[in-house]
Amino acid sequence: MKSLKCDSWMHQIRGSLKSWTKLWCILKPGILLIYKTPGSDHWVGTILLNACKLIERPSKKDGFCFKLYHPLEKSIWAMKGPKGESVGSITQPLPSNYLIFRAASESDGRCWMDALELALSCFSLSKMTAKSGRDGDLSSSSESSHILQLLQSSPLTDQDLLQLNDSMLENHMENDANSDKSEREAHEDSDNAANENGGRLTEESDMDQSDDVCLQATAFVEEAHEEIGEVGEASQVETVSEENKGLIWTLLKQLRPGMDLSKVVLPTFILEPRSFLDKLSDYYYHADLLSQAVMEESPYCRMKQVLRWYLSGFYKKPKGLKKPYNPILGEMFRCCWLHPQTDSCTFYIAEQVSHHPPVSAFYISNRKDGFCISGSILAKSKFYGNSLSAILDGKARLLFLTRDEEYIISMPYAHCKGILYGTMTLELGGKITIECEKTQCYTELEFKLKPFLGSSCNVNQISGKIRIGEDILATVDGHWDSTVHLTEKRTGQQEVLWNPGPDIRRQRLKRQVVQIDQQEAFESERLWQHVTRAIKDKDQMRATQEKFVLEEAQRQEARERAERPWNPRLFSFNTDTNEWHYKYPEYVHNSTLRLLLIIIHKLYRKIMCFKAKLTNSIIFIDVYGFFIIIIIIGNTLQ
Prior knowledge:
16-stranded antiparallel β-sheet, endoplasmic reticulum, globular, cholesterol binding, disordered C terminus
């Protein structure tokens, strides 16, 4: 396979006995092949880079040291060699879970570290083609010379990029036997372990995670069923059976006013059969409103459209008083919505990045329509005696890419009353803001709780205003699950800002989800499938048992992890802003080849700079092969 490739003598590699040996290393996407001599006759071993971390290692001796290691102290070696070898050439013993390298000079060492990082990136991208099942050799294609000529021109224009024609993309590359086999074996072992446990999360299998992210082209299918509650108070009231009242009283005996409920195990009869990460996606069934907001010319009209989208996320509600599952640490959820009018797609991905305190991070992107959203929610709950509140502490950042405008958005809290006496009812309350610092346009909105002596018309009320600077442009009032009116301050003209009637509900975008048999072990639907099935079967005892299995496995994992910090797979914490950021925004799926080729252009320039650094080094990079891989990936994403 033609690919990103580096090979040279590594000045020294340290063995288990702390002595050093000179070995020949060949770097390919995802693997590092080690030989006693140049060539392929004396294979020593193959390191699987997707399981490794890379760090610089200070040294008192001459040269430059760096270390490849497995963060969980597991083996970094493949079971077989590139030609099926099961036993490597005899050298001094090498460690199983790490390897320390010494280059002759700092410049050579830095080049090797850069090459290793590029190889890892190249491998992550190339894995997206693994399921296509096609083969072929690009090097024999008649278009190869044209592609190479395009890639060697500097700089490439957008028109040049679009000259990469479809016939070129129909070709394919050969699979690397070693890396493909080792990855396949690893996945088979993982799948077999999950199948033996019925897909459950167990201490021995699914709890072990590595930090690498396998970027594959995801197959989404339209969601089969969606439940939307009724308008008004009727769908927000819970009638509790006598049996369940006993469970509530048992629970209440453990509580005291003002207590945080985040560590309290709640009975399963009040659970909505889906994860909180799934529930956070309710805001994007009308994401096409954001596509329209980007196109509005005035800041005021854009703010009106953003507010309309914001209100669209509340009317989908379960019947009764229901609470989604508290996500397991490391759990993730992904889905998307197709936009027929713009032929685009809004992608959503979320991960539980902390358990105590419970923090959910999320990232939403539709780059074709020009917007993305990021943020995190710290879920807190307080008990007040006859009522409790679920507070969503956090902010979402909505960015209009073409306008460089950012809207900071906060959330209302959920309030449940009538726990000890009266009717158990769920409402939304609190003041929220939508702020755009660039345009100085702000929305203030209050979700009002029903007064003690209020009537049904006082349920789900909201009121607010839109202003630019200190000038109030419009006022807002109505009910968040039905009609909301906007009144222009200057003219007194009134319009319906939002009304989720039958016509609007028919315009909801269809959510696309990943089929459960194709989900990873820590994806929400697969993770909670046994609890969900028991709840839908109205078997509360089995639901409680299945929920306990998950929670106990999480506690055991926390005990084993002890003081070691948890490292989320998809998000990283910025200590300067105290916010969570998605690690891989450049890899969010794009539905157009043009966007992909622009990414190729950026990568090309980066590798050209890297190639220039290696002019005087014995390491070389096959840039042509690297780009052939990415071009094929473009074909798989269409």
